[in-house]
Amino acid sequence: MDLKKTTAPVNTITYNKAKIEAPTGNVYEAITIIAKRASQINTEIKKELLEKLDEFATYNDSLEEIFENKEQIEVSKFYEKLPKPHALAVQEWLEGKIYYREAK
After folding, report:
1. How far is CA 12 from the centre of its chain?
2. Are 9 and 87 in contact (CB under 8 A)?
3. Of 6, 15, 72, 74, which is closest to residue 44 (Cα–Cα)?
4. Half-sphere exposure of 21 (CA within 13 A, CB side)
5. What count of other Cβ atoms lies within 10 Å of the Cβ of residue 37?
6. What pTM was computed for the model?
7. Closest by Cα among 46, 43, 52, 47 to 73
8. What is the C-alpha to C-alpha distance for residues 81 and 83, in angstroms, rounded to an integer?
9. Sign of CA dihedral 68, 74, 75, 78
């Protein structure tokens, strides 16, 4: 997932209910699918962030020395400015990028 190229909104916006429910015909089913995708996106982002922050980790037992790593701060700021996982999931849903199937 390329987070830099996303067009998902950072702020909360109102969506047309008919557009959300159009692929399934049921708004509750659509929201359930979007919520599951948002959880997947959140897990991916968290894993990616932890991997990047782990590169800057220092392992000392001394409480006296606390380092302020500028690269680590920049990485954290980048991830804070990203759209939230639910916004990314809704954007993917509206663009038809989410695959789903009915369990029978």
Report:
1. 14
2. yes
3. 6
4. 8
5. 21
6. 0.81
7. 52
8. 7
9. positive
Q: Answer yes or no: are the C-beta atoms of 34 and 86 closer than 8 Å.
A: yes
Asked if 100 contacts 21 with a C-beta cutoff of 8 angstroms, the reply is: no
Residue 103 within any structural domain of the chain: no
pLDDT tens digits for the chain (104 residues)? 677 778 888 888 999 999 999 999 999 999 999 999 999 999 999 999 999 888 877 666 555 555 667 888 888 888 888 999 999 999 999 999 999 888 77
Total of domains in the chain: 1
Q: Which domain holds residue 29?
A: 15-55+65-94
Q: What is the DSSP letter of 84?
A: P
The answer to the question of residue 1 being in a domain is no
Angle at 40 between CA 35 and CA 43, to 5 degrees: 125
